[in-house]
Amino acid sequence: MNTKKSQSVGNSAGNNTGNNAGNSTGSELVRDYLATVEREASALPAERRQELVADLAEHIEIALAERPGGSDREILRELGDPRTIAATALQESGFGPGVLPGAGAVTGAGAGEAPGRRSPAWLVVLLPVLAFGLGYLWVPLGFALKVAGAVVLFRSRHWTKSQKWTGFGLTTLAPSLMNVAWFLFSYPNDPSQTEYWTAIVAVAVVTVAGAGWLWRVRSDANAGQRQ
Amino acid sequence: MEPGDPSNRTASKAESQLRKGVLEYCVLALMRDGARYGVELLRELEETGALATSQGTVYPLLSRLRRDRLVDTTWQESASGPPRRYYELTEAGRAALAEFTGTWPVFRDAVDHLLAPKAQPQASGETGR
């Protein structure tokens, strides 16, 4: 899964700053501040937490060096609330609570670190089509595939909520209703061969149109992220 | 140490979400012309007004960019004070920035188009693409 990305990068950073940050920014205020960040970020893995504290310590030290008249109080005020920083760090690492629902589309998808496995778009699109085809061979299989298709569709990150509902309606709901209508109304009246095939083609067209539409409007949230 | 005071402006929720969404690319854009160190990046972000929240929240972002290999860091001695850690774009970072640079005008035009009052149909079709 995605969290493996953390592997090697950035751990040297923590050690490096540890050396020079500790001595010269020894003010009580700064120590308290960094301790608060560390405490608030306790949900982060130790390595990440230390890296964050080291980054901030380094910032404070350099900002002080560059601003001879500046006080550490002023610099800490500009850095901001330790809780906000810790919360941001939790979100960026994908460990945090509540990525904002709206922002998720932008930042969350970009981060690509939502927990859990997600199915690729092609599978989501393929399942209802298979459900249609195989459903004629064995109804329970078609039904199972429809359910699976709906589950992966609604869990997917490739579509917005309204797109998912449209897709679900076209690929799954409408064909199912057409099947039900067929058995309720046409089947008892002894349909002709032509009627039978027309119905099948109609269901196929709706299903494939829905799948094709889903495929066209999908967004590859992760594709743009690296290379 | 009193927290509070995230920035001198109180951004609306929509505004702060917007800013949050594009901040990453603003940061990448600042490195386009060469390596920058943290304090320098934050100062420039602050000056351009692109910063959504307090300065400190940029460090978790920088840390993620580093983990995602969009930026690389190197230490450089400084004439005054401690050594600085410089951030610079990797190939992947440059590609991500280029992609966003292409996406942004289209996105901006689309939103502008939706927000613009419909009263006078203007003949300037610059929203196409």
From TrEMBL, chain B:
Residues 27-99 form the Transcription regulator PadR N-terminal domain. Gene3D superfamilies: Winged helix-like DNA-binding domain superfamily/Winged helix DNA-binding domain. InterPro entries: Metal_resp_DNA-bind_regulator, Tscrpt_reg_PadR_N, WH-like_DNA-bd_sf, WH_DNA-bd_sf. This is PadR family transcriptional regulator.
